[in-house]
Amino acid sequence: MIGAAQTWEAIGLVSAIGCAAVCSVGAIWLAQRPLAWRRERITGLAALCLTALWAGVLAALGPQSLATAAAEAVRNLSWLALLHALFAGGVDRETAQRVGFVIASLIFVELLQGVVLAAVFMLDAPPAFSDSALHVSALLRMLVAIGALVLLHNLYTGASHQDRAGTRWVALSLSALWVFELNHYAVTWFSGEIPSQIAAIRGLVVGFAFVPLAMALGADVRRLQFRASRKVAFRSLSLLLIGAYLVAMAALARLLPLIEADGARLAQVGFLVALLTVMALWLPSNRFRAWAKVTAQKHLFSHRYDYRAEWLRLADTIARGVDEGDALQLRIPKAMADITESPSAALFLADSDGALVLAEAWRWPTLADETPVLPSQIAAFLSSRDYVIDLEQWRKGKSAAGAAEPLPAWLDQSSTAWAIVPLRHFDRLQGAVLLARPLIDRQLDWEDFDLLTVVGRQLASYLAEQASQRALMEAARFDEFNRRMAFVLHDIKNLASQLSLLSHNAQRHGDNPAFHADMLKTLQTSSGKLNALIRRLGRYGSGRETQLESFDLARMVRDIPGRFGPLHRIDVACTGPCLVTGDPEGLEQALVHLVQNAVDASPLEAPVCVAVREGASEAILEIIDVGEGMDAAFVRDKLFAAFVSSKPDGFGIGAMEARDLVRAMGGRLEVQSRVGLGTRFTIRLPLAEPDRTSQNTLTNEAA
Fold first, then answer.
1. pLDDT given at position 336
2. Beta strands in 403-492 (DSSP E)
3. Rounded Cα–Cα distance for residues 117 and 359 (Å)
4. What's the Cα-to-Cα distance from 510 to each of 503, 505, 506, rounded to whole Å?
5. What's the rounded Cα separation, in Å, for the pair 575 and 258?
6. DSSP characters for 316-335?
7. For the chain, which terminus, N or C, has the lower number of CB atoms within 10 Å?
């Protein structure tokens, strides 16, 4: 088995090797830094190199070697040289001379103890002489360490504020080194032998101490500031308190057996049980954690809150909530309560009358059962000012609103209500958050007011955004309803125009049998369109997908003139069947819209041409008129815009509806127009059977 001596020897070896590596890396890094070669940088680089040499010799030859002692002496001299370089740039000439004399004395003492150790190794001295030499050597090095610490103290306290910022980390590193050396040799002097445990970790301590020294010499040391995070400070304080508790328990447990009485053993056991019970109940409690956090924030930091951590937690709470799927109204009080460590909170929202009514209660069941309303005076005050209300001050009549009315029972002195935070979006009050008193009661201060006010504005923006989204959704529903009604009115207008024209012509051609036949056909067509219109009323906005099927486009086009009867001349140009894939009802509706627009735009004697032809993979349907036409700006910006029409009595939605219907079946609608020449609408639809339709096209061309 490995004994304790071998274990500490192995630890010392690893510690020395690690120190050599750290100092070597620090020396290389410092040498490569693009900084001026000041005196302290040169001596610091030398100190790093010589310390790495000492650690290497210590690892190779052990602490009892003469070479190790010599390397340690050289190492200490380099540290003193660095100390002298620090003084040379920050004091006047007279002070520098006095400091130089002290450092020269310390160098002499260091060399003197080196002579003592050399005499021990070179002479065959008896054990008593070796023990005396060890005491003398330890005493001399204690003197060197004490002198160096005194100089470092004078260097730091006597420097100006600017120079102190530049030497802080170097002085801290050297102080740690000399303090450890002083303790090491003090234990050696008192015990008469080198302490193996302390000697084993020398390399580790020296390596850690030289890290900030190298960083300070190779960087702008004024920017190096030690800042412990609040989480680290809180956990450190907790560990310190727990450690102190355990040490006290162990000490008392060792003292109890010294009681010379019959019940000593019983008292010891009872005391240990009591301490363990207190530890189990008190240390993990929320009250203890809250007390530790408040203590750390009060005494270790200039600000109570870690604003970055609070903002990240706020964003996370609002994004995900207490549990996945929680509503925004429940996330808001939870996010506000996390900031002040409140055990519960409630959200009050403004109703139509301006009263603040309870909307959600987070971990406040008694409040949720009462469904309270904040007093009107508080609601009016928060509506006019962005101000966090301290209910303790309000209860004492010291409110910022002047003479305060008595609070209701659920907000009086017996209540756990602590503060009210307004949620204001710009100048409008969205609501308020009521916070319960934290576990560790404290007074609200300016930092609470500032942070809670800013967070309240942020949370109010979320509520305002949610209200805006709801308003937009509601407006979209009304827009869809209005659009549906506009389409219906547009179709009714077309039917009314046809029936009106039919009634007008009936007075002139009432005795013509052919007109009677056309009139009956037109009435049947109008009746069918009215029935189709009724069926379509439930389709708009229903989200029903367009049902695509194959049908003959040419046949649909041939029926178009019959829909308009003798009202206007419609010329059809199509040779054979043209099978396409689409929605027959929707395409017929779009085609009627476009033909009706062409009829309205054309003179009475000018026909409207509807032509069908097949392309390589699509069917092309064209509606051509020789009417007034449209300019490019109108086609680009207004033709497919809702409620914009070139006709005085037009609704401006026929072209838009036709385009939407064609798009829904996988086609596209194109338009070409010239002012004074006319307009061409082109509908392109996919062919149902490309091979078959291509054969039909070839046959027609051959014919």
1. 92
2. 417-425, 428-436
3. 83
4. 10, 8, 5
5. 121
6. HHHHH-SSTT--HHHHHHHH
7. N
Which carries the bigger pLDDT value, residue 633 or residue 316? 316
| 324 half-sphere exposure, CB direction, 13 A CA radius | 0
What pLDDT score was predicted for residue 324? 47
The 10s digit of each residue's pLDDT in 224-258 is 444 445 555 555 555 566 666 556 655 655 555 55
Mean pLDDT of all residues in 395-407: 77
Q: What is the pLDDT of residue 221?
A: 42
With H, G, I as helix, E, B as strand and everything else as coil, classify residue 604. Answer: coil
**Residues facing residue 622 across a β-bridge:** 611, 682
Does residue 89 surpass a pLDDT of 70? no
**Could you tell me the end-to-end alpha-carbon distance of the chain, in angstroms, rounded to an integer?**
110
Amino acid identity, residue 109?
V
Closest by CA to 144, choosing from 105, 193, 117, is 105
Pairing of strands 570-573, 608-614: parallel
> Torsions phi, psi of 570, nearest 5?
-120, 115
Q: What is the pLDDT of residues 284-322, one digit of tens each?
A: 555 555 555 556 555 555 566 777 888 888 888 888 754
Highest mean pLDDT among 123-127, 584-588, 607-611, 634-638: 607-611
Q: Which of 435, 409, 413 is nearest to 422 (CA)?
A: 435
List, as one string, the DSSP characters of 265-289: HHHHHHHHHHHHHHHHHHTTSHHHH
Q: For residue 102, give the nearest of 159, 157, 150, 44 by alpha carbon.
A: 150
Distant-in-sequence, close-in-space partners of 384: CB < 8 Å, separation ≥ 6? none
Which residue's entry shows tokens 């935070």?
A: 421
463-472: which pairs have CB atoms within 8 A and are 24 or more residues apart?
463/328, 463/332, 463/349, 463/423, 463/425, 463/430, 463/431, 464/425, 464/428, 464/430, 466/328, 467/430
Q: Sign (positive/negative) of CA torsion 139, 142, 144, 147?
A: negative
Instruction: Give this prediction's pTM.
Output: 0.42
Joined tokens for residue 48: 């790093």
Mean pLDDT of 406-435: 89
585 CB neighbour count, 10 Å cutoff: 15
What is the C-alpha to C-alpha distance for residues 634 and 360, in angstroms, rounded to an integer? 53
| Residues 316/322/325/326 CA torsion (nearest 10 deg) | -110
**DSSP 8-state assignment for residue 345:** E
Number of other CB atoms surrounding residue 622 within 10 Å: 18
Under a CB-based contact definition with an 8 Å cutoff, are residues 651 and 489 in contact?
yes
Instruction: Give the distance, in angstroms, between the CA of residue 169 and the centroid of all CA atoms in the same chain.
Output: 35
For residues 546 and 583, is the Cβ–Cβ distance under 8 A? yes
Give the Cα separation of 484 and 488 in Å (integer): 6
Which residue's entry shows tokens 């260091």? 110
**CB-based burial of residue 352 (10 Å sphere; 0-12 exposed, 13-18 middle, 19+ buried)?**
exposed
Side-chain half-sphere CA neighbours of 648 within 13 A: 0
Query: Quick one: how many helices (H) and strands (E) in the chain?
Result: 24, 12
> pLDDT tens across 189-206, in order?
877 777 777 788 888 888
Question: Phi then psi for 542, rounded to 5 degrees?
Answer: -80, -10
22 or 89: whose pLDDT is higher? 22
Cα–Cα dist 35/358, whole Å: 64
Question: Is 543 a residue whose pLDDT tops 60?
Answer: no
Residue with tokens 């360490």: 145
